[in-house]
Amino acid sequence: MVLIISPHFPKTKAHGATFWLGRDKAVLMITIRGKWADIFWFSLFHEIGHILLHKRQFVILEDDSTDQREKEADMFAENTLIPSDAYKQFVKRGRFYSGNIKSLAQAVGIHPGIVVGRLQHEKLLPQQYGKNFRERYEWT
């Protein structure tokens, strides 16, 4: 596999793309659109999901579409970063306090910002809560 990390392409919504070079070499290109670390990691696993789940003849460019392949790749990323059972139990308890977030993150081996980012994406936490957890990447 070839991994390409690049700056965000202006005036696009793309986080990444996947395609195949020949029969045996997958190319995964990822950007730092938005600069949020949790979005970068979600996007990376989303693209890996495309490589593992979808046919090789497709070139898949992330553009926020509602394609079934996008949903499958999203589910792959969600469940790889935070296992489904652990996340469902965490949400069911409804205790999204700092200590609880850190405990879940430690239990599943991820950065707490990934937990916060998912909770915010699912509108279970307000956006301003993330300041203490979410990190940003800069292209240098």
Mean pLDDT: 88
Query: Treating each run of at least 4 consecutive H or I residues as one helix, how many helices?
Result: 5
H/E topology pattern? EEEHEHHHH
* Low-pLDDT residue intervals, each spanning 5 or more residues: none
Separation, N- and C-terminal Cα atoms:
24 Å
Shape: globular
**How many beta-strand runs?**
4
Helix content estimate: 40-55%
Main sheet specs: 4 strands, mixed
**How big is the Rg?**
16 Å
Q: Major sheet: order of its strands?
A: 1-3-2-4
What is the SS-derived class? alpha+beta
Number of domains: 2
Beta percentage is 5-15%
Q: What would you say about this model in short?
A:
The chain has helices at 37-53, 68-81, 84-93, 98-108, 112-121; strands at residues 2-6, 16-21, 25-31, 60-61. The chain is an alpha+beta fold.
Q: Explain this structure to me?
A:
The structure is a single chain. By secondary structure, this protein is an alpha+beta fold. It folds into two domains: 1-81, no CATH class; 84-131. The protein is built from five helices and four strands; from the N terminus they run βββαβαααα. Helix 1 (37-53) packs across helix 2 (68-81) and helix 4 (98-108) crosses helix 5 (112-121).
